[in-house]
Design a protein that fits this description.
Elements: H1 3-21, H2 24-27, H3 34-48, H4 71-84
Helix pairs in contact: 1-4
Length: about 90
């Protein structure tokens, strides 16, 4: 996926589905947008490094565990969103 596609997927499809299904005490720990998630994945290395260089592109994987009992409902919302929202048919 391109960065633009990943941003659209996260911000317009996946996160809204999670916020509709999961309780607030769970979603409060998720990044609010793709750009926030991207910044979080780079923050640790950026803050810890001692030398600034333009070629330094460290990024860490960040994972969030989703409770399985909610996944069917999340997927149903994802399918409905991509089917009924203009500009998301490529998903």
């Amino acid at each position: 996926m391109t960065e633009e596609q990943l941003s659209r997927w996260t911000d317009r499809v996946f996160h809204p589905a999670l916020w509709k299904v999961f309780p607030a005490h769970y979603t409060q720990h998720l990044p609010s947008t793709y750009r926030v998630a991207l910044a979080n994945s780079k923050a640790n290395q950026t803050e810890a490094r001692k030398i600034e260089t333009s070629s330094y592109q460290a990024q860490q994987g960040i994972t969030y565990h989703l409770q399985p009992e909610y996944l069917r409902e999340v997927w149903d919302i994802v399918l409905e969103t991509v089917s009924n929202t203009p500009g998301l048919a490529d998903f």
